[in-house]
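Protein modeling request. Please complete all fields; requests missing the sequence field cannot be processed.
Requester role: graduate student
Desired output: 3D structure, token encoding
Chains: 1
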Amino acid sequence: MGKWRDPLIFEDLYFNWEDAFTGFDGGSVTVVENPDPDDVNSTSRVGSMVKDGGEYWGGAWFEVERPFSFSDDHDEITMKVWSPREDVQVLMKVEQQNGTLFYEIAEPTTTSGKWEEMTWDMSGAGFENQWDIITLIFDFTQGQVGDGSEDFTWYFDDLHVFALDAPTSTEEKGAEIPVKHVLHQNYPKPFNPITVIMFELPQLTDIRLDVFNVMGQRVATLADGIHQAGRHAVEFEASRLSSGVYVYRTEADGFSIKRKMTLIQ
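Delivered output (265 residues):
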């Protein structure tokens, strides 16, 4: 079953962003405060790409949480971009961590000094291939080597991959069964006041999903009982709770997994 993939945003203060991106050939990514909040992008934290020396193809790549494939009606990537210059070629590339295939396409920025939302048509990547790495290159123009200045600093946020999830195990007669117990990061994050938590089960399982405050007190139980193998999504409505960090935890088959989420009222 297809779904819109979770966007890449930088509001999660507990995620290790320093290790998420790998820069190459003069490109590097850090997470910074939004330098110019506006109606297009009002989030407080964004990604910053700086090109300093190296090669004109310098950029950064990151591995996605779950492999994906494009289809005839799920074949775009969108991202919000702040560029210091107009008509800068921004290259979007999908790759395979354990393969040799890749597909790349560049689109120009249409403004400077303010946020815009860009779209890349990924239909040329084909519909039969699976991808698990995304590479970003700003100012993909031959001879355009960065100098680390403001003129070679871009900001980006809210990257959406409109695609289908690749199977988590070998498909048998069209069935898609996870290979292990997985607890996903909630979305949206931070949230106000509703978020969705997804978990995966490899077999029929008696599972419990609880939410705790920072004092360790249980504030909600979202699942408790037998669930079929497959992917499950539950909604958490927190309007009665105060802003802050909460922990959600699954317990099943003698072990537990927990993650953090942030509520902003």
